[in-house]
Amino acid sequence: MLVLLAGIFVVHIATVIMLFVSTIANVWMVGSSNIGTISTGLWLLCNKTCTQLPVRSEDEASLKAVQAFMILSIIFSVVALVLFIIQLFTLEKGKRFYMTGAVMLVCWMCILIAVSIYTARFTGTMMYSTNPHHGYCFILAWICFCFSFIIGILYLVLRKK
């Protein structure tokens, strides 16, 4: 049981770190141009230097929603990690980690909403570049989506023995 708890804890910490990286780094879409490689993220457009991300007015609300939901997913993931640690030491034997699992599933839903909006509105529509494709931050966000769902379900069924 201790090995299972330690494994879940390590995967949870890895998920938090990957969420931070995918939200902060600016490599959600990558393309090439005559200047070189161009990458865009949730915040900046980067080639040799980084500038503010140019967004059409009809896409501005979508980008702000993606930014907000990614930040919320980080917050909920950290809260779930703190709740897990607190419940690990205060919960009676035989009880389940319901609160931790519920908060982690809310984190999962926030990631789902953010990445789905980004996929629907911004995939393949990168300005100033040819042959755009997804960067590692986009892929990390989908990996975090999978990990947070698995962790959330494991917390719901896990009993403290």
Automatic annotation (TrEMBL):
The chain crosses the membrane at residues 7-29, 65-85, 97-118, 138-158. GO terms for cellular component: plasma membrane. The keyword Transmembrane applies. The keyword Methyltransferase does not apply. It is found in: Membrane. Keywords: Glycoprotein, Membrane, Transmembrane, Transmembrane helix. It is a multi-pass membrane protein. Belongs to the PMP-22/EMP/MP20 family. This is Epithelial membrane protein 1. The gene is Emp1.
